[in-house]
Structure formats: C-alpha cells, structure tokens
Amino acid sequence: MVSKNTICLWYNGTALEAAEFYARTFPDSAVSAVHRAPGDYPSGKEGDVLTVEFTVAGIPCLGLNGGATFKHSEAFSFQIATDDQAETDRLWDAIIGNGGQESACGWCKDKWGLSWQITPRALVAAITDPDPAAAKRAFEAVMTMGKIDIAAIEAARRG
Question: How many domains does the chain have?
C-alpha cells in the first residue's frame, strides 16, 4: 500500500545509490522499488532509473532523478535520534566517511547534499533539563561541537 505522505527527494541521477546507502546505514531502512523511465525525459533516457521508493528510519521516501536543476539545502534535514555514543559515532562516521561533510551541533551533510542531524537522546534531555542553569550549560557545550560528545554534554549539564 502506498503511504499517504511520502517525502520526495530530488537527485541528479544518484537516487538509487543514495537509497542503497541509507538502507545499509540506518535501522528500519530499505529500498522497496526501483522504477525506470518509460521514455526519454529532460535529464535522462528511456530505461534510466527515474524513481526509487525507500524508507529511512521508517519514513517513506521517493528518490527522484530529476537532474541538476535543484539542490538539497539545510532547510530540510533528517533528525536521527541515537541511544548512545557508539550509535552516534557509527551514523556520523558512516555519513562523513562516505563523502559527506561535518557541520555544527550534530549536523552533517551526506555526499548528495542532504542534511542529517545525528542527535543523541541524552542531548535532548540535557538541553530541556528543568534546571535552566543545567540546560544552559549543556546548550553552550553543544554549540562548540560538530559530532555530539555525550560525555561532554552530560558533564556540562552536571556543571
């Protein structure tokens, strides 16, 4: 059954490569269908991969090989909640190690230009701490980080 709401992500001929990477990297992710163009189109030929149906962490997505016209931006990102430092490191390192780039505060960008927030649950708990001073210390610590260091966040939270 087709999902009522699907995120459509625009790629320049690399939708299948991206979907396969996401399926290998993120839990509850898979490539479910590959559709080839029934005829020539502005950025491809008959038989080229036109769309790819996949899920990322349970979210239904459609990769569209629409050409070079549009690029991804930080205005859209996937936020992936992690349970510990090992999971945080594994996901961050997979994205960066596959041609991605680091950004600030747990954000990174994959080689296709799609932004990801690799967000430990401990970070969310720290910056929403009912003690405003603890939350502020944790927030100030995260503002200095690329990949999130849970031990440093927890130490800042404790003061």
Answer: 2
Which ranges constitute the DSSP H helices of the chain?
15-25, 85-97, 121-127, 132-142, 150-158
Residue among 126, 122, 88, 125 at smallest CA distance from 107: 88
Same domain, 111 and 61: no
Q: How far is CA 111 from the centre of its chain?
A: 11
Q: Name 97's Cβ contacts closer than 8 Å, sequence gap at least 6.
A: none
Question: What CATH number is given to the structural domain containing 130?
Answer: 3.10.180.10
CA 156, CA 74: separation in Å to the nearest integer? Answer: 27
CA–CA gap between residue 126 and residue 117 (Å, rounded): 16
Domain containing 48 equals 1-68
The model's pLDDT over 98-132, given as tens digits with 9 standing for 90+, comes to: 999 999 999 999 999 999 999 999 999 999 999 99
Which pTM does this prediction carry?
A: 0.93
CA–CA separation, 32 and 105 (whole Å): 32
